[in-house]
């Protein structure tokens, strides 16, 4: 039997998670309840995060940065006009998760805490240089999305910790885009690519999803590509650098070999989206 | 049988108290404890859409919603929308267009379609397909369902 607990503050939630050994936090429930229904997860206690004030919603901070509460639903992120320009990639990724109904349930914090490598937020957040705020028994800390995923479904989240927010750099006027290859609309990605043009228009930040335990980014390769976005050879070299760091698996959505072949195609596709918007 | 506890929720405009497992899903509570049967248990994984209900005006999966979290929220099923103008138009057009065959997906389809027409009165055919992309039908091949939603939208706009 599972008992549901309803804390109203982050501190209370963290204390409840510490007090019960196999307690789990539950955000939107889109994954956890599905796993419970399949008999894959059992807990004596579920700590529900839905009654904690201030965990949901998107705000612009005084310095222009954008903060997204961990309990913000995909539907809200997918329609948020503050996520424009360099941050539009995140809005686009949110709008490609599952379908309208599931987007009314799932949350960014839940998705990122679960860290499914094929889910849409990880590459989009990596391309935006997002910072996660994490609360736990030791207090609150910040972790870069680039240091967050440590291995397959293993993250920087420690025992009893929860994600409370995502902070994104202030958006600037430049194109950004997200594409995924999936078997059907709304499925998890076979492979995905998030890209944002740098403010000077010369370089890009690129993250590949679903081709390894976490999103793949390579700042050195990005620096080498800077100023050569229109050069097919430079783009091919860049794509190869990212594919070399990929560690894809064979699964029901595609073979590892197929995924490797998708990487350069996705990069060309997203570059094309960006150049169309820029012209 | 697992221990039950009392949950309170607002179902179709009425305050309801129901004994259900502490971690029961709304779908389990609706079907097994309240015998409200329009929501169907298809995949129980949030994929098929047959269990879709409307909470606070938005369609969600009842199989992924815990009953204990519904307290203070407004839950609507097909049963609670029998006088709803949009739902009635959809029902009429589903029958006329042949959008109902075995009927298992129909309740969930209606919930998703009703929400679409409430938000977007004249959706394009593609917008209808996109809005229904989370509802699986194994009988019709979808064309007649999309016809029905477009037909209802046209009638409602007149």
Describe the secondary-structure layout.
The complex is a heterodimer of chains A (about 280) and B (about 160).
Chain A: E1 3-5, H1 10-19, E2 24-26, H2 32-37, E3 45-48, E4 58-60, E5 66-69, H3 74-78, H4 88-95, H5 100-103, H6 108-114, H7 121-127, E6 131-136, E7 139-144, E8 149-151, E9 154-155, E10 162-168, E11 176-181, E12 191-197, E13 204-209, H8 219-225, H9 232-245, H10 256-278
Parallel strand pairs in A: 1-3, 2-3
Antiparallel strand pairs in A: 4-5, 5-10, 6-7, 6-10, 8-9, 11-12, 12-13
Chain B: E1 5-11, E2 14-20, H1 26-33, E3 52-55, E4 58-61, E5 74-76, H2 85-97, H3 106-119, H4 125-131, H5 143-157
Parallel strand pairs in B: 1-5
Antiparallel strand pairs in B: 1-2, 3-4, 3-5
How would you describe this protein?
The complex is a heterodimer of chains A (279) and B (158). Chain A has helices at 10-19, 32-37, 74-78, 88-95, 100-103, 108-114, 121-127, 219-225, 232-245, 256-278; strands at 3-5, 24-26, 45-48, 58-60, 66-69, 131-136, 139-144, 149-151, 154-155, 162-168, 176-181, 191-197, 204-209. With 279 residues, chain A is of the alpha+beta class. Chain A folds into three domains: 3-46; 58-168, 2-Layer Sandwich (Uridine Diphospho-n-acetylenolpyruvylglucosamine Reductase, domain 3), CATH 3.30.465; 176-278, Enolase-like, domain 1, CATH 3.30.390. In chain A, the strands form four sheets. Chain A has a five-stranded antiparallel sheet with strand order 4-5-10-6-7. In chain A, strands 1-3-2 form a three-stranded parallel sheet, with helices on one face. The N and C termini of chain A lie far apart (59 Å). Chain B is an alpha+beta fold and 158 residues long. Chain B folds into two domains: 5-80, Ubiquitin-like (UB roll) (Roll), CATH 3.10.20; 83-157, [2Fe-2S]-binding domain (DNA polymerase, domain 1, Orthogonal Bundle), CATH 1.10.150. Chain B contains five helices and five strands. Chain B has a five-stranded mixed sheet, sandwiched between helices. The interface between A and B is medium-sized, with 25 and 29 residues.
């Amino acid at each position: 039997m599972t008992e549901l607990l309803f804390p109203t503050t982050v501190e209370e939630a963290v204390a409840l998670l510490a007090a019960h050994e196999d307690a789990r936090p539950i955000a939107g429930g889109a994954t956890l309840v599905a796993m419970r229904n399949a008999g894959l997860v059992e807990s004596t206690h579920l700590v529900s995060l839905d009654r904690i004030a201030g965990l949901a919603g998107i705000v612009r901070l005084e310095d222009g940065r954008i903060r997204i509460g961990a309990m913000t639903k995909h539907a809200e992120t997918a329609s948020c006009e503050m996520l424009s320009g360099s941050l539009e990639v995140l809005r686009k990724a949110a709008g490609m998760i599952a379908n309208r109904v599931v987007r009314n349930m799932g949350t960014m914090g839940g998705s990122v805490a679960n860290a499914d490598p094929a889910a849409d937020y990880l590459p989009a957040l990596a391309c935006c240089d997002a910072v996660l705020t994490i609360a736990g028994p030791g207090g609150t800390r910040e972790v870069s999305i680039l240091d967050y995923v440590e291995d397959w479904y293993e993250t920087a989240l420690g025992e009893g910790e929860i994600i409370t927010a995502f902070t994104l750099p202030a958006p600037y006027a430049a194109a950004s885009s997200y594409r995924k290859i999936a078997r059907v609309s709304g499925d998890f990605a076979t492979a995905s690519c998030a890209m944002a043009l740098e403010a000077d228009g010369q370089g890009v930040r690129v993250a590949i999803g679903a081709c390894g335990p976490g999103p793949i980014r390579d700042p050195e390769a990005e620096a080498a590509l800077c100023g050569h976005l229109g050069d097919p050879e430079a783009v091919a070299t860049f794509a190869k650098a990212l594919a070399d760091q990929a560690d894809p698996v064979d699964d029901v959505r595609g073979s590892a070999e197929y995924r490797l072949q998708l990487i350069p195609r996705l990069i060309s596709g997203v570059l094309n989206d960006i150049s169309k918007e820029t012209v | 049988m697992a221990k039950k506890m009392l949950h309170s929720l607002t179902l179709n405009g009425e305050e309801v108290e129901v004994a259900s497992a502490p971690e029961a899903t709304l779908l389990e509570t609706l079907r097994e404890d309240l015998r409200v049967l329009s929501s169907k248990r298809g995949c129980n994984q949030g994929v098929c859409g047959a269990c879709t209900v409307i909470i606070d005006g938005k369609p969600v999966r009842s199989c992924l919603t815990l009953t204990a979290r519904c307290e203070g929220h407004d839950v609507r099923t097909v049963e609670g929308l029998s006088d709803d103008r949009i739902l009635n138009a959809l029902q009429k057009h589903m029958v006329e267009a042949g959008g109902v065959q075995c009927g298992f997906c129909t309740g969930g389809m209606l919930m998703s379609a009703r929400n679409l027409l409430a938000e977007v009165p004249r959706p394009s055919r593609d917008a209808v397909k996109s809005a229904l992309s989370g509802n699986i039908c194994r009988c019709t091949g979808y064309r007649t369902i999309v016809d029905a939603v477009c037909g209802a939208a046209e009638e409602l706009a007149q």
